[in-house]
Amino acid sequence: MALIVHKYGGTSMGSVERIKNVAKRVAKWHKAGHRMVVVPSAMSGETNRLLGLAKEISAHPDPRELDMIAATGEQVSVGLLALALKAEGLDAVSYAGWQVAVKTDSAFTKARISEIDSERVLKDLDEGKVVVITGFQGVDPNGHITTLGRGGSDTSAVAMAAALGADECLIYTDVDGVYTTDPRVVDDARRLDKITFEEMLEMASLGSKVLQIRSVEFAGKYQVKTRVLSSLTDPLCPLEQEMRSGTLITFEEDDTMEKAVISGIAFQRDEGKITVRGVPDRPGIAYQILGPIADANIDVDMIIQNQSVEGKTDFTFTVGRGEYQRAMEILKTSVQAHVGAAEIVGDPKVSKVSVVGVGMRSHVGIASTAFRTLAEEGINIQMISTSEIKISVLIDEKYMELAVRALHKAFELDQA
Amino acid sequence: MALIVHKYGGTSMGSVERIKNVAKRVAKWHKAGHRMVVVPSAMSGETNRLLGLAKEISAHPDPRELDMIAATGEQVSVGLLALALKAEGLDAVSYAGWQVAVKTDSAFTKARISEIDSERVLKDLDEGKVVVITGFQGVDPNGHITTLGRGGSDTSAVAMAAALGADECLIYTDVDGVYTTDPRVVDDARRLDKITFEEMLEMASLGSKVLQIRSVEFAGKYQVKTRVLSSLTDPLCPLEQEMRSGTLITFEEDDTMEKAVISGIAFQRDEGKITVRGVPDRPGIAYQILGPIADANIDVDMIIQNQSVEGKTDFTFTVGRGEYQRAMEILKTSVQAHVGAAEIVGDPKVSKVSVVGVGMRSHVGIASTAFRTLAEEGINIQMISTSEIKISVLIDEKYMELAVRALHKAFELDQA
Q1: What integer is the mean pLDDT of B77-85?
Q2: Residue A16: which of B56, B65, B73 has the nearest Cβ?
Q3: A246 and A352 housed in the same domain
Q4: Which residues are in the ACT domain (chains A, B) (predicted)?
Q5: Which of A128, B97, B282, B296 is most buried per CB count within 10 Å?
Q6: Which range of residues forms the domain containing residue A59?
Q7: pLDDT at B113
Q8: Is B124 helix (H, G, I), strand (E, B) or coil?
Q9: Looking at A229, A252, A275, which one is the last position of a domain?
């Protein structure tokens, strides 16, 4: 008898019919003898509807009040799912984050979980109840409702699994697992049976938006066996089959993994590249350039600083395309003169393509294979950034699909 | 500088535009130097939408989960209103019932408030904040969310005013006060400037559905000066004018009131009358008849037991018309044989008309005036029930409007 956490996304909770299907699936697991905790998202469209109302009232809504408003979407979901579970003949009870309690810091709209009380939930499980808990939200030390930011329900589910010492956390979503790359770009992209949490981390942060990145961090940190699988299968399909479907995110590299050098090709299409040219190469210059960008709440992705020539250096970084214009303005108005830069240049139409795999650690020549593949396709590499388990290149947006397909083939990811 | 509680109904909160108007009105009061607490209802239609979802999932939804779901409507409202108040330049903060805390018993969907902590709210008020608190809901001793039942936001507002020692509780609604009777029935029905809470209690319970009856009980018990007034006036109308508008529910009978013998004519159109005939007149018979009705959660209104003849008596009571059929079935299947009644007869098409006024206490002849008026119109009285400040008669439904108009005129309610 295992303790299992299920997480269902907004699409899976998108209608009364679908909620009933979720209940059927959970009931199947419960009847097989498992202790079940379920974390559902808000019904699809609901969070947008609520935030839309807030935006209509205020162009810059107060984050605390936004959380108060947005948190209701998940509260409705847990209540409805508990009702559906009861209709399936199970004993079920729903909790909002503050009732459990899921404790967070006070960073409204992007709070981080600090601690989860498990006592109440474990007691309910001991009594044979299915416990349904709101994702996406918690309560801060002052008793204010907080939310974890978009996709936060994944994090809630994994954190809950960690707090409860669950045997596995199953993330049900509208894709059936993690692929070697986006199947919309490469026809023969293949579903991975397993992936390490580190690889998943790179895949997630690089745009394979199957799981919220913080949920993967949690899975790694607390060694939570997490599985991504489809909510679109027949809810009454055999349990044994369902238990082996999807992609398992593991925290240990086993033998199987050694064989696969590369797990996948991730990409981020909508990037913008900005270069601050001819800045004096002195301590603190990176902070002087990126500080104002961070203050404006703009996420910076790749950062490269060239070797300096005659005491001057070029400083290049990328941002999401939607923030490109704003970042350029900040640099031109508040940074250029201050740091004594020669000029600010940029390109709003670049994409990042990354080769990801823990196998890289023990295999040489991955980088050169990647670079040769791109060269053979005539694709110019604008920036390179590497980590232990990934190589990312920045290229002209128009070559993105071509690069992904070529790399997918070069690393034989189409072959099981 | 007074402490004022405002309550706004679902219609007043029905759209972004209306919520902004509420904020403008509250801002006007705040700028005049008052300490403001606001209790808004869910946006109109929202509670029905939520309960509709629940009903789609389960024909007999669990009340605890219903409360979990329904309570979100008000939570959205407080967040939106706090945003709108901030947009007006005020410092505002919203709270759900459990955050205040509004403590209730555990009777889900019809909980009663047991205690309200005022510390947190008073602290915010001291800091110059406008405090926005969810109506309709609270938290039980086990930390479960409860709701107070339909119209419960009125009760929340009055209870909050009592807990805070507020100077006045203003209930903004889509009517501009309490009338001598329903203006849809009697053209020259007149708005009352004042009414005692006891009269209001009779008016409310008799179908003048301006205020939830429990809110009036609270107002009486804790002597909260409560005013019912329109939310449809210009939100920026002069404060002095607004402070004198609507109907004030007072807890003391002042001189003005002595003059008005009767305050109004209330009525309840949809009643059903049931008579259990020929039951042995022995102790416990009323309980044996009404016990099973109460167990079925059917509210009984008027109850009359006739003088017994030869040890047998007739027992008559009224129920809401919607419950008439069910009540008849219960009596025929579970009660008739058990109590040895001769027969069960009924009439599902009766209405109750009531003459209400504290002046009745010190004036004689009110009943005879009422009975004479009805007789002159040829209206047969089927049942009579009286209290210190009201006389109710049950009549054929088809005469209801005629009876109300005739009594309204007979007691000169059309004259200021």
Answers
A1: 98
A2: B56
A3: no
A4: 274-349, 355-416
A5: B97
A6: 3-175+210-252
A7: 93
A8: helix
A9: A252
Residues B300 and B240 in one domain: no
User: DSSP string spanning A71-113?
Assistant: THHHHHHHHHHHHHHHHTT--EEEE-HHHHTEEE-S-TTS--E
User: φ and ψ at B23, to 5 degrees?
Assistant: -60, -40
In a domain, A183, yes or no: no
Q: Provide the pLDDT for residue A258.
A: 45
Same domain (yes/no): A379, A299: yes
Q: Residue B186 falls within a domain, yes or no? A: no
Predicted local distance difference test score (pLDDT) of residue B272: 96
Tokens of B390: 């009201």
Q: How many CB atoms lie within 10 A of CB A415?
A: 9
* CATH code for the domain in which residue B155 is found: 3.40.1160.10
* The pLDDT of residue B137 is above 60: yes
CATH number reported for the structural domain that contains residue B368 in this entry: 3.30.2130.10
Q: Give the number of A-B residue pairs with CB atoms closer than 8 Å.
A: 102
Mean of all residue pLDDT scores within chain B = 91
> Could you tell me which residues are beta bridge partners of residue B338?
none
Are B100 and B242 in the same domain? yes
What is the spatial distance between Cα A34 and Cα A45, in angstroms, rounded to a whole number? Answer: 31
CB contact under 8 A, A143 and B20: no
Count of structural domains, chain B: 2
CA-wise closest residue to B56 among A83, A232, A234, A91: A83
Q: Is A47 annotated as belonging to a binding site? A: yes
B22: closest CA of chain A, how far (Å): 12
Residues of chain A with pLDDT under 70: 205-209, 252-260, 416
Preferred mutation among A53, A66, A74, A119 to probe B, highest tally of B CBs within 10 A: A53
Residue B10 has a pLDDT of 93
A332 min Cα distance to partner chain B (Å): 31
Please, which pLDDT band fits residue B258 given cuts at 50, 70 and 90? very low
pLDDT at B80 over 90: yes
On the question of pLDDT at B24 being above 60, the answer is yes
In this prediction, residue A207 carries a pLDDT of 55
On whether both B243 and B374 belong to a single domain, the answer is: no
pLDDT at A183: 85
CB contact under 8 A, A83 and B71: no
For residue B184, being part of any structural domain is answered with: no
Q: Which residue of A has its CA nearest to B79?
A: A65
The alpha-carbon gap from A261 to the nearest alpha carbon of chain B, in Å, equals: 48
Q: Which residue has the higher pLDDT, B202 or B67?
A: B67
Model's pTM, two decimal places?
A: 0.81
Check B68 against A54: CB less than 8 A apart: no
Residues of A in contact with B68 (CB under 8 A): 75, 78-79, 82, 94, 96
B156 neighbors B135 (Cβ within 8 angstroms): yes
In a domain, B101, yes or no: yes
Taking the Cβ of residue A385 and every Cβ of chain B, the question of whether any pair is shorter than 8 Å is answered with no
- Is position A10 annotated in a ligand binding site? yes
Same structural domain, B218 and B343: no
Q: Is there a contact between A84 and B58 if contact means CB atoms under 8 Å apart?
A: yes
Indicate the average pLDDT of chain A: 91
Hey, which residues does A324 pair with through a beta bridge? none
Query: ipTM of this predicted complex?
Result: 0.78
Cα→Cα distances B187→A319, B173, B403, B414, Å = 68, 21, 14, 9
As beta bridge partners, residue B279 has B313
Q: How far B51 CA lies from chain A's nearest CA (Å)?
A: 10
